[in-house]
Design goal:
The protein has about 230 residues and is an all-alpha fold. The chain has 8 helices and no strands. It is rod-shaped, with a radius of gyration of 60 Å. The protein starts with a helix and ends in a 12-residue tail after the last helix.
């Protein structure tokens, strides 16, 4: 039915005007259209919420990425610092090792020198006392020289010890002459003559054999091979 024609029928039949309320007579929308509209709105709102959440997540990931980058740089700096520290510690350890080595060399040099000096002092005291010291004095000096053998064997080489042994053997020969003089087996003059020969032999051996063999070990440079 045409409601508009009906509303205008008063003009033709002089009837009172009929007012038709369109909203009242408007056909109701279908439930399907309402569902679609609500669904579209829901999708729009959901998309908006999703976009906001994704934005926030992206910002959070960006911050995390920045923090990780900063952390990575700091870790790199820490690694470099640890490497430099390790390198410095290695250098210090190397220097300490070298210092310890030089200290050991110096101590060994001093011990060698003291050993040689003692032997030389005992030798000189024996040599200068052959004609004016008694038997006990000479025997003591010979024993002191002999007591240096073990030290020489450790500090030097076998050749040095054998050379020192030759010197003490000559000392023993002079002591035997002294014993004969004391017993009256030889005169004082004979003792003097024979002792002088042995004394010259001992002095020559000390200067030309013993000192030649030991002088190398009395140089600090000889310890470089250690």
């Amino acid at each position: 039915m045409d409601f508009n024609a009906l509303a205008n029928a008063h003009d033709a039949f002089n009837l009172p005007q009929i007012v038709i309320l369109n909203d009242t007579l408007k056909a109701p929308e279908s439930s399907w259209n309402t569902f679609l509209t609500d669904w579209v709105k829901a999708i729009g709102i959901g998309s908006l919420i999703t976009g906001v959440l994704m934005y926030r997540v992206a910002r959070g990931q960006l911050k995390i990425s920045k923090y990780q980058h900063i952390l990575g740089r700091n870790q790199l700096k820490l690694t470099r610092a640890q490497f430099r520290l390790a390198e410095e510690q290695a250098n210090v350890s190397k220097e300490q090792k070298e210092i310890a080595k030089q200290k050991l060399k110096l101590e060994l040099f001093q011990v060698r020198y003291e050993c040689h000096k003692q032997f030389k002092d005992f030798y000189n005291e024996f040599r200068t006392g052959v004609f004016d010291k008694d038997f006990n004095f000479l025997y003591e000096k010979q024993s002191q020289c002999s007591s240096m053998y073990d030290d020489m064997d450790v500090l030097f080489v076998l050749e040095v010890r054998l050379s020192a042994l030759k010197i003490t053997n000559i000392m023993i020969e002079i002591l035997n002459l002294k014993t004969k003089e004391i017993k009256g087996e030889i005169s004082n003059d004979n003792y003097g003559q024979e002792a002088l020969v042995k004394l010259q032999e001992m002095s020559n051996f000390f200067v030309f054999d013993y000192q030649e063999k030991i002088k190398t070990f009395l140089k600090f440079e000889s310890l470089d091979a250690l």
